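Format notes (please read before filing issues)

Several people have asked whether sequences and structure tokens are stored in separate files. They are not. Every record keeps both together, in the order shown below: the sequence lines, then the token lines. Line labels are part of the format and must not be stripped during preprocessing.
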Amino acid sequence: MAKIIDRRKFLFEAGGGLSGVALAYMLGQEGLLGATAGQTCVAGGKTPFAPRQPHFAPRAKNVISLFMSGGISHMDTFDPKPMLKQYAGKPLEGKGEIVVRQGHPGPLMPSPFEFKQYGQSGLPVSELFPHIANHVDGLAFVRSVIGRSNDHVQAHYELASGTLRMGWPSVGSWVTYGLGSENQNLPAFVVLYDARGGPYGGPANWSSGYMPALYQGTIFRSAGDPIMDLTPPASVTHDQQRARLDLLGKLNALDEAKNPANSELAARIASYELAYRMQACAPEAVDVNSESEPTRKLYGLDNPVTEPFGRQCLIARRLVERGVRFVQLYHGGLGNQNSDTWDAHGDIRDNHGRHAAESDFPIAGLLKDLKARGLLDSTLVIFQSEFGRMPISQRGLGRDHNPGTMTIWMTGAKVKGGQAIGESDEFGYKAAVQPVTVHDLHATILHLLGMDHTKLTYHYQGRNMRLTDVYGTPIPQIIA
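Then the structure lines:
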């Protein structure tokens, strides 16, 4: 005889989840929700947003990731190669098969940009980044990061999740899952992308993959309402909306009593309740007009060239200041043409010149502002891209994709600055000394946040999954 179940239980078990809206409000009334910023909270409470204890004492509690989408050229920015000038116009030989993405491989091409040494460390930086160069003694450059794909989308996914495929949790999701949130009125993981469009690969870059959707990144817009449809219709008053949620909360309490072991219900309810609380908090968090005029100028908001990315950087500071755990910024977006990204196939001078002019000043302003406010010691800032570029020319002026080596840098979180870690070969074609994989990079990020990457696991399909799979070693010079 077939088992008869009631309608509400059928909808819940069928995946509709229509009842999952506001139980978190009731839990909050009973003191069971995670604390707001500045309050204490016992880890392991019912809310999935509650702050959690790290495995060991962290060096950082927040992350700002600056992603230059399109593939920034290391040899034209932070990894000078004088040998390119010496052998200019000659073929790249002795390196095995030369694999290019778009074809048209040319001879070795020197950088069109001049390098200068900066700071007490004397580290060289291209003329593209004169403002970031003034912070060189606080930056740790890793010149030997290697990827596994010369395809934009797959390379984006690898930097985001450690895999070349979509459907896997991003590093921001892992951080949120591992540490929870410091502010119960804002998402723990926020994404701000270029006004010209999103990055290659789209939302899969901030996906929660096989984890609950609660841990995925939340897109904030840098102008207007930070989230579409955040403001309720004018016809619905605050009291009406609250009454609806309270009624649903009572119904959800009945479901929880029937399904006490189902953590997905609490997670789904908490995400809806967070959306309600964000109606008051999110607009304030992105209100850069409330900042002083000197602060706005520090980020370049008075210049139409630097204003778009400067606004993103200023919002990122405001978010970490309010306890947002992971802020992902993208510079370079898929607009009307590839030239809106750092994908310099046609002309490296023109492409990188334009995009560096947009981003250099705002990034330097972010670093200066974080330091002045005492936030840099507790915030890890990462500058990265999906791959480097080839030392040979493409049609004489551009450079093709090169996952064989790239340069990233980190600062904040008490990371020792003024150092260059690893080396690419004499032409910048492949990592030559201390190759660093993306798994190593992710293990390093987690370590600085107080998490052992081998112990941060999520059980899925019979296996304890990790961000770093079965690989990864933290970069010793970074975590020292």
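For reference, the curators noted about this record: The two ends are 66 Å apart (CA to CA). Residues 8-46 have pLDDT under 50 and may be disordered.
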